[in-house]
Write a structure and sequence with these properties.
Elements: H1 11-20, E1 41-45, H2 52-68, E2 72-76, H3 83-90, E3 98-103, H4 104-108, H5 110-113, H6 121-124, E4 125-134, E5 136-140, H7 149-158, E6 162-165, H8 171-183, E7 188-191, H9 195-204, E8 209-213, H10 214-222, E9 227-231, E10 258-265, H11 270-284, H12 287-295, E11 299-303, H13 305-325
Parallel strand pairs: 1-2, 1-3, 6-7, 6-8
Antiparallel strand pairs: 3-10, 4-10, 4-11, 5-8, 5-9
């Protein structure tokens, strides 16, 4: 199944965040719109506890409850590459009390890779907001002797190279396949179950290149044991502002950003939908939350429902084209 592209978060860090939001004061907040749900709100996270989506959900739950005075809980419903939790929200009462927190790949990649899904993103869900993003980066082994994308492409044209990704069908796998097409190179894909083992193989010389979430390889970058050549995102990262983007390196048309969004069942009432967005926007744009997210390697990246829906459609079309042109399939 498709491995969703999410950044690595240490168990200690994740537990620290969970502990910090375990006790929540019941304080009413006067600016919460009247249409905000008046009963318990459940944030469905379709993955196990401790990952970035779960941490983001618990930070949000804390803020929702503090501001509204309503009980807000995170419910982890893993399984089926996230599809079990997605179906729960699809079939929930559309009153704003059951919401979905989900990474990009489940919405923009899986519908093409998994044609038998039981949901349709556009028909079954109402986007509330894009919440946060995590930067992705391409790093190489120092033994490769390159420091730029231009040098990497020249090296790939002169000898056989291999690259690692977090898994077949992951956003970074597709981004590298798109890079191969645009650069006119052919390097072998070696899929892994996440970035940690791939990083070990890069350091061990078993692969030459790794496309990874930045948090997973940032210590290696800081220790200069791996060489970053480009961000796969549209902008540079404030965590490593000296690393150029692919566009700045001469490769246009690639923006592989790991992002996380919130959706509700499609039939949600407009006033409830607007209230949820208003409160979510206020939370995600607060300096305090920005600092907490940055500590996890995440950046607040709020988009309103319309632009968020446009992003989902645009990226779905982009990755569908890559999947079909590169004949990418997964076992289900």
């Amino acid at each position: 199944m498709n491995k969703v592209n999410v950044p690595a978060i240490s168990r200690r860090t994740a537990l620290g965040v969970l502990a910090s939001v375990a006790v929540v004061p019941r304080l009413a907040y006067a600016d919460v719109p009247a249409a905000f749900p008046k009963s318990q709100v459940t944030l469905i996270v379709p993955f196990t506890p401790g990952g970035p989506v779960d941490v983001l959900g618990r930070l949000l739950a804390h803020e929702y409850q503090t501001r509204s005075g309503q009980n807000v809980v995170v419910e982890n419903r893993p399984g089926g590459a996230g599809n079990i939790g997605i179906d729960i929200v699809k079939n929930a009462k559309p009153d704003g009390t059951t919401l979905l927190l989900i990474p990009a790949g489940n919405l923009t990649i899986n519908p093409t890779l998994m044609p038998n899904l039981t949901f349709n993103v556009a028909q079954d869900f109402a986007p509330i907001a894009l919440l946060a993003s995590a930067p992705n980066v391409i790093v190489v082994s120092p033994k490769l002797g390159v420091t730029t994308v231009k040098e990497f492409i020249a090296k790939a044209k002169s000898q056989k190279l291999s690259y690692g990704s977090p898994g077949v069908g992951s956003q970074l796998h597709l981004a590298m396949e798109l890079l191969k097409d645009k650069a006119g190179i052919d390097i072998q894909h070696v899929p892994y179950r996440g970035s940690p083992q791939a990083l070990q193989d890069l350091l061990g010389g078993y692969i030459d290149v790794l496309a990874s979430n930045l948090p997973a390889v940032l210590p290696g970058i800081n220790d200069k044991i791996v060489v970053p050549i480009a961000m796969t995102t549209a902008q540079r990262s404030e965590l490593v502002p000296t690393i150029p983007t692919l566009a700045e390196s001469g490769i246009e048309g690639i923006d592989a950003t790991s992002w996380y969004g919130m959706l509700a069942p499609h039939a949600i009432a407009p006033d409830v939908h607007d209230a949820l967005f208003t409160v979510t926007r206020d939370i995600m744009t607060s300096p305090d939350l920005h600092a907490k997210l940055l500590a996890q390697g995440l950046t607040a990246a709020v988009e309103a429902p319309g632009p968020f829906a446009d992003r989902i459609a645009r990226e779905t079309a982009l990755w569908a084209g890559v999947i079909k042109s590169r004949n990418i399939t997964i076992q289900q």
